[in-house]
Design goal:
45% helix, Rossmann fold, 3 domains, alpha/beta, globular
């Protein structure tokens, strides 16, 4: 895409054109050569959205919880976008599950934007382009950006690098796996949600998590039944409290975030150049090396 076409897309984006937003996200997700130009021109518009990370094992009801959270945000006359990271297709590399289906009731609302991203082999529960896509949604003017990870295990904790508030969603049956999860994902959450709490063992799991936290009162452990909208109001209230706390440590988190993303940008650009046979200085160096041998 030429320079003037990109500038036209950015101009439409700044006028709140959803089609332009979707096209720019696609370009960033596909590591288009214009990605850095796009992000640098929109960076001054970022820094306003509250980013909520929703993570947890498969089947915990993350998408249902997000759907109820969207409903609550809309009641407050605020806008929200969702980036749902799904497993990659082994054939196309695209998203398999497609969370638009699971949140369909909100998809046509003017203040809601839902997008599925393919994890594309990333092992951190998120796509490599996640942060860049968050930046675009922030620049577009959404009040909230919700990140939903692929169903994760104990080592997949990338969500903490991108979210202002990280929510770990569990179910009563998760009790037996708490000890194995302790060294990883259990440590990164700001809020713990035991969903489907009508099932046996919910309160026992709640006590186990409290014991694991060793009296960290600033980390709530909530019981919800997202399918019946139970516990959602308490959940959103805790998110607002966490938002105020996180504002106090935002500078440090952003500095760490910038370092991490700078590293990713350099590696991504390096990979792009290596994969481009028309403009690959590394190939020339390698061939020169072979000739010498």
């Amino acid at each position: 895409m030429g320079f003037y076409q990109i500038m036209d897309l950015i101009a439409k984006f700044l006028k709140k054109d959803r089609v332009a937003l979707s096209r720019l996200i696609s370009m960033v997700e596909n590591h288009d050569s214009s990605s850095l130009e796009i992000l640098s021109r929109l960076h001054h518009k970022t820094g306003h959205a509250f980013v909520i990370g929703i993570t947890g094992p498969p089947g915990a009801g993350k998408s249902t919880l997000i759907s109820e959270l969207i409903r609550d945000i809309l009641k407050k006359k605020q806008s929200v976008s969702v980036l749902a990271c799904d497993p990659s297709s082994p054939y196309s590399g695209g998203s398999v599950l497609g969370d638009r289906i699971r949140m369909q009731e909100h998809a046509d609302h003017d203040d809601v934007y839902i997008r599925s991203l393919s994890s594309r082999g990333s092992h951190g529960g998120l796509s490599r382009a996640t942060f860049d896509c968050v930046q675009l949604l922030d620049a577009f003017g959404f009040d909230y950006v919700i990140l939903e990870t692929v169903g994760v295990g104990q080592s997949e904790v990338d969500i903490m690098k991108y979210a202002d508030s990280t929510v770990l969603v569990l179910v009563p049956e998760s009790g037996d796996s708490i000890q194995t999860m302790k060294a990883g994902i259990m440590e990164i959450a700001d809020i713990y949600v035991i969903n489907k709490s009508d099932r046996p063992g919910a309160e026992i799991l709640q006590k186990e998590i409290f014991q694991m936290l060793q009296g960290q009162k600033e980390k709530p452990v909530l019981l919800t039944q997202a399918s019946f909208h139970q516990g959602i109001e308490e959940f959103t209230n805790e998110l607002q409290k966490n938002k105020k706390i996180k504002k106090q440590i935002e500078r440090k988190r952003l500095a760490e975030q910038r370092r991490d993303e700078t590293k990713k940008i350099i590696l991504s650009e390096l990979e792009r150049r290596i994969d481009n046979p028309k403009n690959n200085p590394f190939e020339k160096i390698f061939l020169k090396f072979l000739r010498k041998r």
